[in-house]
Each structure stands twice: as structure tokens, then as C-alpha cells.
Amino acid sequence: MRTTAVVLATLAACVYAIQAYGEQEVLDYGMEPDRYKAACPDYLHYSMVPHRPLSKGPLSLPYQRPSPHCRTFSSPLVEKVIDDLTSRMKDQDLARIFENAFPNTLDTTVRWHADGKTRKSKKHKANDLEEDGHWDGAQSFIVTGDINAEWLRDSAHQLAGYQTLAKKDKQLEKLILGAINTQVEFVIESPYCNAFQPPPPSKVGPDSNGQEDSVHPAYEPTQVFECKYEIDSLASFLALGNQFYQSTGSKEFLHSRWYLAIDKLLEVLEEQARPTFDIETGHFERNEYLFKRRTNTGTETLNLGGVGNPLNDGTGLIRSAFRPSDDATILGFFIPGNAMMAVELKRTATMLKAAGKNKLAEKLRIRGESIEKGIWEHGVVAHKRYGEVFAFEVDGYGSAIIMDDANLPSLLALPLMGFVKKGNKVYQNTRKMILERAGNPYYFEGRAFAGIGGPHVGLQHAWPMSRLIQAMTSDDDEEIGDALRDVRDSSRLGLIHETIHVERITDYT
Fold this sequence. Notes:
The protein is α+β, with helices and mostly antiparallel strands and 509 residues long. It is built from 17 helices and 17 strands. It has helices at residues 6-15, 33-37, 43-46, 76-87, 92-101, 104-108, 152-160, 170-189, 231-248, 256-272, 303-306, 335-354, 358-378, 414-417, 425-434, 464-472, 477-489; strands at residues 110-114, 139-142, 150-151, 195-196, 213-216, 224-226, 290-293, 333-334, 380-383, 387-390, 393-394, 400-401, 443-445, 450-452, 461-462, 500-501, 504-508. The radius of gyration is 22 Å and the shape is globular.
């Protein structure tokens, strides 16, 4: 369920021209909503069964949205976008997928939302009390599909498709503002962690991830669902705020708690920029972050006692212990994650400068440019077949991992993140490499489907998300059409699967 709406929603947001629709209105249920919601089926099971009416295309795809009374959030503006776009689509099956997928985050994953009170901006001071404004203002807890926990990265992507609509819909704007405020509290609490339990004010109970993990820094399990340190989680926190500011012009989230979260984020970047061995003495320096999990799956834990493989000094890059797939990195300088962080730091710096925070803005800008320089110096390698390409991971010693994974951020998605232009020569070389079996060990092809996969689900499952990213990074009509048709034809339940077995589309996750 993790990728049901994310990429198609983003694609729609990119191509849809916003019109002057009105603000959100409260739906008239005609009965007490709480009584109806108590009878609503679990969407995980509901989505696995086809429902009528069927689409009028040759695939006869089912209508998979829950009843309006069972939806977790409603926006009349989103409904108007769906009606407007689908009415102009010739492909009725593709229209049905959009109709089901675009609103899916609002329909099914807003586990808790509070409008809060108008929050007064407070000056950022070093001696601000950490509990000042704790859980104040609007709050939104966005779960990751079938798991009752919020991933920083996933929730930011889930909301990305609605960002351009927020200025025209005050309730949608408040939902996204709440998501920023909630992520603020998560980052302050445990900046190294990737997934979080329901906030205490929600009164929704925490779940266990069923794992035996030993992690440093320690965390509170009633507040943290999983603590895999992934650089893109923190970059996604920045992206959520940057997109909101760019779309609405609002700086309402720039309060003392947000600035404290930025301080925590910068501390992590500083700590994870340090090498494994002291540059002067050569002595081993224990990393601030350690992760060990009792498991028989190598990608679920870090080797060398939870440290991971050694990383060199002087690269400008930031270590990431795990990838966006939640798999462990092999070489800790994960290039797509560093690229995303570089872009979002510079975007945040621009926003802060406009807010009059010149000193902090300059600090973020310098760090972002340092990471960007490190990518071009250490993350670009010479491939004997494809020429200069971006590596997936490097260690600063000269070693590199050549591959790509479907999860975002990825090498394929570098232009979408704003790191390079689509026509950049190094990117084009990389794109050619990672979309071929000869160049990418995780590019899978079969009789039923083809695309980029990754070690997370195995060696026969490709991610439809990778085909959508392929379409979004192409100017070739035939390539775009092929990608969309393949995703459409494999989405027989009217929703986009996480992964599909390349030999049979009925085998999916």
C-alpha cells in the first residue's frame, strides 16, 4: 500500500493547471459520522476486492474508493480536480486508476488531524525552552498505508500531490500545515529515526514493529515505530515545508519548534559528515548512530557491530545508514539521498532568507553546496560502457556501488528532485545504464512486466513506481506511453501496486 497514491498523485500535480475553485466545505453526512465510521471495513481488505461500478475501458477496472462516510479526510477541491481531469481523459481505465489513486492519501491515511489554534510566531533563541509550544497548532498524523505509523519520507511524498491545491483550499492547507508541525515534533524527539507512532494528543495507541533492535541514540518505543537513520527522511521533512511555502507563500510553520527541529537536523548532518577514522591519528571514531537488529536478512541491519562499512574524510558527503527502501546501505554515502538533501537545504535557505533569517540561511546554503560539490567530486564515476555516471553509493575511498533502487529518492528521479536537468549528460548516461539489465542488477524484465526493483522485495518483483518515474523523466512520447500502459495493464484492482512479479501480474505486494 505504500506507493498506491504517491507517484500518480505527483504526476497529476505536475500536469494539472489549477483553477480558481472554492474553499473546502464540510460534507453533509446526514447522520452522525462516528456511528457510520464504526462500521467501515478495514481498507487493506476492502482494496483487495473489486467493487462496482467498473470503468468503461477494456480492462473494466473497479471503483476502489471507500464510502464518503469512511474517508479519513475530504476536499471538494480534490473532487473537482478528479472530475475535471477524468472527464478529459480518453483512456477510461487510466482515468479510473487516477480516480482511485489520487485521493487515496486523503481517503485512507489521515489517521488523526487537529486544526489547532492560530499560532503566534516566536523568535528563534538558543535558550528557548524545548517544551515551548510542544504539540501546539495544527497537527496531522499521516500513516503509511497498511501500517499504523508515519514515515517522514512517505508522508511527505503522500502529500506532495496536494501541495499546489492548498492555497485554494484552507482545510487542505491546514492539513499540510499540521503534517509539518507533527513532523517537527518527531524530528525534535528522535532526529535519527524514520518512522513514528501516533502522537500522544491523538489518543491512538502505539504499535510494535515486532523487531529486536539495539539502537544508539536510544529512543522511546511508544513514540518511535522504527529507528533506521536515512538521510532522505530528514530531507523529506525539509521538502514538506519547502513545497508548502512555494505553493501557499505561508510562513506559519516557521515557529520556535520548527527552528529547534532545524537545529537537530543540522546536528545530525554534522555528526554524519565525520569519517570512520580520525584524520590525524587514524584511530577509529565510533559513529554517533549504531543499529543492530536480530535478523537473518543482511539488508535489515548494519555490519561491523552496527557501524557499517568505513567512510573517508573530506568528501563533503553525509552518511546514510539506510536507503529509502529501509534496506541498509553498503557504502554509506548514498548519492540520491545526498542529492535530495543538497537541494532541500538550499531551498530552505532561500525561504529563510526571505523570512529575514540570514545567518541560519547562510549556514544551510553552505552545507547544501558542500554536499552538492561532494556528489560531483566523489559520486560521479567513469563506467567503461556508459561513460561518466552517478554511482548509487560511494565511500570516499574510491569504491562505488553501481545500481539503482525504485524507491525515492533514486538516481532515476534526480531531475524531479531538482538536482540536475533532464538533459544533463551524466544523468542521461546514468539513466541509460539503470534502465537496462546490463547496467543495473536490479532492473528486472519478464513476460508480464519490467522495471526497477531492489533488494527489499527480491529479485523478481519490479516497482510500478519506477515506470512512472521513467515516464516523468522522459520527453519521448513512445517511452511515456509504454510506461503508462504497462502500469495501467498491471493494476487490475484499480490501484497501483507496490511491486509486481515480472512473470505474472497476479503476484504483487
